[in-house]
Amino acid sequence: MTVTSEGRGVWLAILGALLAGVGAQQNLCWINNAGAQYVTEIMENNKIGDAVVNISVADSNVALSLEGANANMFRIDGESLRVNVILDAETMDPVFSVTVICRRQPDTNQLNVIVVIVNENDNAPMFSQSEYFLSVSELTPVGTSVERIQATDADKEALFYSLDGNTNGSEFFRLASSNSPSILVAKLLDFDEGERLELIMSASVSVLECLVCDNEKGTVFW
Question: Which residues belong to any copy of the Cadherin domain (predicted)?
């Protein structure tokens, strides 16, 4: 087949239009000049309507919408992706995605936004009971572990433990370490000094300062 210069010009014009269409389709919208996928973080306990990311569009004719299983958790407000719910790292999946559809007829492309919930320390460590009653022999050697009373933390933070020094049992018992809830005998027990000894244990997320802690009565020894 012979292609004339006129025909070649027509084909080049068509090819140019196709390439222009592909380029437009690939650049209808973007986030921070990233590719088709963008990862961002948002702190839990957010306010409804907080912005997640801003979306750049090629021009004012580009319409944005959302798709995907998590689409109802977000909304498009102008060129911003905003959150519709209060996020909770303890009860929700920590990572999820939403698809942003960018449409300018006849072209469409999409952005996959990966949202990571950042955990905030908003839960106090808790013991399973407010009081524990234990029986310890008067002949128990110094250094013996008599109980391990561990607190739990919904935020999964590292916990530090302490014993209140103002109780009558504080001189007879100690913790194995600040990050261990094992209670050890620190001094030989003497029932002549009292058969009932009390300890108060606290758990906190800071070894220096009790920022968030459970200060209820921890342990009573008989």
Answer: 34-127, 128-204
Specify the pairing of strand 51-54 against strand 56-57: unpaired
For the record, the structure tokens of 82 come out as: 């905003």
Residues 175, 105 within the same domain: no
With contact defined as beta carbons under 8 Å apart, do 114 and 53 qualify?
A: no
**What's the length of the chain?**
222
Phi-psi region of 61 (alpha: psi -120 to 50; beta: other; left: phi over 0): alpha
Full residue range of the structural domain in which residue 63 is found:
29-118
Instruction: Decide: helix, strand or coil at residue 78.
Output: coil
Q: How many CB atoms lie within 10 A of CB 130?
A: 10
Q: Which residues pair with 30 in a beta bridge?
A: 56
Residue with tokens 């801003």: 54
- In tens digits, the chain (222 residues) has pLDDT values of 444 545 445 444 444 444 444 443 457 999 988 888 999 999 988 999 999 999 999 999 999 999 999 999 999 999 999 999 999 887 888 898 999 999 999 999 999 999 999 877 667 788 888 888 888 888 899 999 999 988 888 777 788 888 888 888 888 999 998 888 899 999 998 877 667 888 888 888 754 433 334 444 444 443
> How many whole angstroms from its chain centre is CA 92?
9
23 token code pair: 């380029």
| Rg, C-alpha atoms of the chain | 32
Is there a domain that residue 127 lies in? no
CATH number of the CATH domain containing 34:
2.60.40.60
